[in-house]
Write a structure and sequence with these properties.
By secondary structure, this protein is α+β, with helices and mostly antiparallel strands. Helices cover about 45% and strands about 20% of the residues.
Amino acid sequence: MKKIRNIFIVVMIIACMFGGTACKKDEKKEEPKTDYMVLVNKESKLPEDWESRIDLVEVYTGLDETYQVEKKTAEAYKKLRDDLRENDHVIIELDSTYRTVTKQQEIWDSFLKEYGEEYTKKYVAVPGTSEHHTGLAIDVKLVKEGKIIADNDEMNAEKELFSKVHAKLAKYGFILRYPEGKEDVTGYGAEVWHFRYIDNSEVAKEIMDKGITLEEYLEKNK
């Protein structure tokens, strides 16, 4: 019996040496990695498993507010914010970040009830198609001379300040997601305050320098 057991052990050792599966330890499956170039728009919905694997952290603002943002996006935003404050004397704060599909549905239903279908479709993303679901998109507001500027029309009027912000987006891996003149491509009106993190400063610079959209970049580099 002992002899048989010894023979079995030798066989198992030989099997291991030649890559046998019997000796392999259980390997943990890797969690799906965040796709920082994911496209979410009116025609391209959020991947179904996205919300279950996104790594969110809380970001505290100078206005005593707290927002959830994807981890690397949060780190890049803080660097952008501090750079603008220290070197350009421009103060930005978060205004809208991660939003669940469920929350988007609540917003959609609320607008639908109050303003009707036509208005809702024009200004509110259909649940599952908002960039804010990704955790990679941030809307910012300005703080100028102690005053919070968050109204869309007022922010659009601050062209000089936002030009300084836009000039530094690519450095930290962000792009202007909805640039002026690209409404027919993005499906949304221009938003000087809406930035998208793509985790690649070189690609971000190319997109910003050429004045193109994420849709156009991805189409060109399929």
